[in-house]
Design brief:
One of its GO terms (cellular component) is cytosol. By secondary structure, the protein is of the alpha+beta class. It is built from 25 helices and 34 strands. Strands 1, 2, 3, 4, 5, 6, 7, 8 and 9 form a nine-stranded mixed sheet that branches. A six-stranded antiparallel beta barrel has the order 13-16-20-19-18-21. A hairpin with a 2-residue loop joins strand 18 and strand 19.
Length: 872
């Protein structure tokens, strides 16, 4: 059975048992407790908490997941992966242990045709109910059932004794013993039946739930009789592609087997994450991607690969995963661009970083130590981009470890420490709106597609983070309050469109809405009570600011027209990667490997305005998402859509899934004016544009500015460009003449003479000199010459005086930066002596002063400061 066939068989089986088949959630869920979706149960958080639709009690999914907790084992063991798929079936207060156990056995034996003699079972040691079902009803022999403790067969692991408090329960695991993998856990049945309130104190839940997980790749390895997930039909082509790119043969137990498997895994994870618009960065999800990519590049580098290659692999991943995820193929050009740019950037610094790391390994061993200092690990991270977990992994290969506490201390000192992720139990964290969710399952009804005014009822008041019965105006400045209505015309910020503002009025109060947000299906009106007192169950009139809403509609509809124009002039790869829609202003991110260029930007702007002039109608309708996709409606990758979606159509040229508010006709957008284009991430560009009144105001301001410049230059507006060019050429000539005169009158300074006269502090040469007749630019150029000649161990601080002012410049060779010195901080010590200030980068910095008479004292201070820094 292929992996694709296994996935379909599992889902079809549980649909036959009454489970509703739900699509995989996105990899980056709208959940602050996790970075990536780690398991199938995460998208059903509300249902497990009893806050979902009471009619929805059974589900089955095949969920895309990403975990990095055991990343060091990826490629080394048979079954560790970062990205993987988890098949699951779930019950929310419906079926329980008996059905979950019987159905699991039925699927394994009758559908997958596994030999029951190859299966063993584990249960929690106190779970007699589960044991009896396996032993007495399923008839599994007692010698193939094991009772294990809370660390092995409880969720969360060790919860009864160690916590955390909250929902928990015993579990039962199914192991397969086959010809391929010797033993593998292929299924975990979690019976969430308790609420932990203290050590050993477990209260029965009023509604018991089932959360099961069956690893797709693990099960496929068992069925296909192969020893690892990397030998399955869905992984084998990716592994082969890695070997081909590196020009080697893949030998599973060879010296490079682990590296090739790890690269294949990381390439798959990168492809799916970038497809959902996650980009490599130093924060949150982006930092995980950057680490995966750099680990793969280092693996290849250690095999002799010096050129980018990883960007070639998404094509293979999309082909292998094309049946369940056909949309991947559309994103391949964008994914390749993002990976290629990140590869290029990292390879530029990798050679020096790995040499430095090898030196650290050698020196550590020579010193008889087995620990690499935390500061040295941080320097590798900061200067060469080698992340701590990569250093830790490479150190392990040399039987060394790192001083993790010392590294964390250095990170904290530089403000780079990141917040830890919350634990698994935080998935069930609750907030002040949860009581509302249990009473109003369908949330707030949104009426804003057809009106900006509507009556409603107050069903929730949140003040100071807590539910309240009422909220009143205050003489000393009303605090922020959140009102929740059963029906509202206010649009809550989502899909890039900002929230509405306006007013909510009742018989005894007025409430100014300053922002509107969404929480699941609830609309949160954020603002202040400016008159009277608002109470629960009160009937109100809600009115959106109509002019602002109209300006937002203009900008939002323009983003769809812009998306169409980008596809015409750049290609289908220019997929939307995010947007921000404000009143008559839009920001649109899209995939493109390079700057668009002035001519193409002008053509894009012209296409948008031509579409506006055609005055085509804008319509919308709702339909099942499968139907929308079959009609070619564009979706934003990485966005989770409901089963029934809203499709916005503009004429015959644009059809997109969109929940935002739009115009009735494209012509109502008025003028479209593109005002900026820039890079925001590897392979992602951003266009900023204006519509309607804001566009007209921008054009008028540009006209006024041009008129002012023309008046100053005393030429007609159409000759401003020629006059400016002539002035620039004149300035260039005057600068050249001034430079020649200065060169003729000032004595030449020799870099060799300065090096020969340098002070020596240990293994460092220090130059602190006054250089007469030089410009600040010439000081910088001279520092560059000195650093090239010295190569290592040189600190330079030069001064010059002109027109009663002092200019300073300082520079360091790279090895001194690695040792903790900083040119900008050195200048900050010296510049105040001449009555100035300044700073700059670690390698080169500039400053200015106004007391030339203090130059000798400044030179003394420069030597004194660098000596102190070297001494420390």
């Amino acid at each position: 059975m292929t992996t694709d066939e296994l996935r379909d068989a599992y889902l079809d089986f549980f649909v036959s048992k009454g489970c509703v088949r739900r699509p995989s959630d996105v990899l980056v869920p709208n959940d602050s407790t996790v970075l990536f979706t780690p398991a199938g149960m995460n998208q059903f958080k509300r249902e497990f908490m009893g806050l979902g639709d009471p009619a929805f009690t059974r589900a089955t999914t095949c969920q895309k997941c990403l975990r990095t907790g055991d990343i060091d084992n990826v490629g080394k063991t048979a079954f560790h992966e970062t990205f993987f798929e988890m098949m699951g079936n779930f019950s929310f207060g419906d079926y329980f242990k008996r059905e979950a156990i019987h159905w699991a056995w039925e699927f394994l034996i009758q559908v997958l045709k596994l030999d029951p003699e190859r299966l063993t079972i584990t249960v929690y040691l106190d779970d007699d109910e589960a044991y009896d079902i396996w032993r007495k009803e399923v008839k599994v022999p007692a010698n193939r059932i094991s009772r294990l403790g809370e660390d092995d067969n409880f969720w969360p692991a060790g919860a009864p004794t160690h916590g955390p408090n909250g929902v928990c329960g015993p579990c039962s695991e199914i192991f397969y013993h086959g010809n391929g993998p010797k033993e593998v856990e292929i299924w975990n049945l979690v019976f969430t039946q308790f609420n932990r309130i203290g050590p050993g104190e477990l209260e029965p839940l009023p509604k018991k739930n089932i959360d099961t997980g069956m690893g797709l790749e693990r099960a496929a390895a068992c069925l296909q009789g192969v020893p690892t997930v990397f030998a399955t039909d869905i992984f084998k082509p990716i592994v082969a592609a890695v070997a081909q790119q590196l020009g080697v043969d893949y030998v599973a137990d060879g010296p490079n087997g682990t590296r090739i498997r790890r690269m294949a895994d990381h390439a798959r994870a990168l492809t799916f994450c970038i497809h959902e618009n996650v980009k490599p960065s130093n924060e949150k999800q982006g930092s995980v991607l950057r680490r995966l990519l750099r680990r793969a590049v280092i693996d290849a580098y250690q095999m002799g690969q010096r050129e980018p290659f990883l960007h070639e692999l998404p094509t293979v991943v999309a082909e292998v995963m094309g049946r369940p995820y056909p949309e991947l193929k559309e994103s391949v050009p964008r994914i390749r661009n993002v990976i290629r740019e990140e590869e290029d950037q990292f390879l530029r610094t990798l050679d020096n970083g790995l040499k430095r790391l090898d030196d650290l390994f050698r020196k550590t061993k020579a010193a008889g130590s087995d620990t690499i200092g935390g500061k040295e690990v941080f320097d590798l991270h900061q200067t060469y981009g080698i992340w701590v977990d990569i250093t830790e992994s490479l150190a392990t290969e040399h039987n060394l470890r790192i001083d993790r506490a010392g590294f964390d201390k250095s990170m904290e000192a530089h403000g780079e420490i990141s917040r830890p992720m919350k634990g698994a139990a935080a998935v069930f964290a609750t907030g002040p709106l949860d009581t509302l969710k249990s009473s109003y399952h369908h949330g707030s009804e949104f009426l804003g597609y057809t009106t900006t005014e509507a009556d409603g009822k107050v069903i929730g008041i949140v003040e100071q983070g807590k539910l309240a019965e009422s909220a009143s105006a205050s003489s000393d400045g009303a605090p922020l309050v959140v009102l929740v209505l059963d029906r509202t015309p206010f649009y809550g910020e989502s899909g890039g469109q900002v929230g509405d503002v306006g007013e909510i009025k009742g018989e005894h109060f007025r409430f100014r809405v300053t922002d509107t947000k969404k929480d699941n299906d609830f609309t949160l009106h954020i603002g202040q009570v400016i008159e009277g007192t608002v109470t629960l169950e009160e009937t109100v009139q809600a009115r959106v600011d109509p002019e602002r809403r109209e300006a937002i509609r203009r900008a939002h509809s323009a983003t769809h027209v812009l998306h169409h124009a980008l596809h015409i002039h750049l290609g289908k790869h220019a997929q939307q990667a995010g947007s921000k829609v404000e009143p008559d202003r839009l920001r649109f991110d899209f995939a493109n490997p390079e700057a668009v260029g002035r001519e193409r930007l002008r053509a894009i702007e012209e296409t948008v305005n031509e579409r506006i002039l055609r005055a085509e109608p804008i319509t919308w309708t709702t339909m099942p998402i499968s139907e929308a996709k079959s009609l070619g409606a564009m979706a934003l990758f990485g966005e989770k859509y409901p089963e029934v979606v809203r499709v916005v159509q503009m004429g015959e040229f644009s059809r997109e899934l969109c929940g935002g508010t739009h115009l009735d006709n494209v012509a109502q957008a008025g003028l479209f004016k593109l005002i900026g284009e820039e890079s925001v991430a590897a392979g992602t560009r951003r266009i900023t544009a204006l519509t309607g009144k804001a566009a007209l105001e921008y054009v008028r301001q540009e006209e006024d500015l041009l008129a002012d410049v023309a008046s100053t230059l005393k030429v007609p507006a159409n000759l401003v460009g020629e006059r400016v060019s002539a002035l620039l050429e004149e300035i260039k000539t005057l600068k050249k003449q001034a430079s020649q005169r200065r060169t003729e009158t000032a004595p030449r300074v020799s870099a060799d003479d300065l090096l020969a006269a340098a002070s020596v502090l240990g293994d460092v040469k220090v130059i602190a000199q006054l250089v007469d007749g030089s410009s600040p630019d010439e000081l910088r150029q001279l520092i560059d010459v000195l650093r090239r000649k010295a190569e290592t161990g040189l600190a330079v601080l030069l001064l010059t005086v002109a027109d009663g002012k002092v200019s300073l410049a300082a520079g360091l060779t790279p090895d001194l930066i690695t040792r903790g010195l900083h040119a900008g901080l050195w200048l900050k010590d010296v510049a105040p002596v001449v009555g100035g200030g300044g700073g700059g980068r670690p390698d080169l910095a500039q400053a200015g002063g106004k007391n030339p008479e203090q130059v000798p004292a400044a030179l003394e201070k420069a030597l004194e400061s660098i000596k102190a820094k070297l001494g420390s």
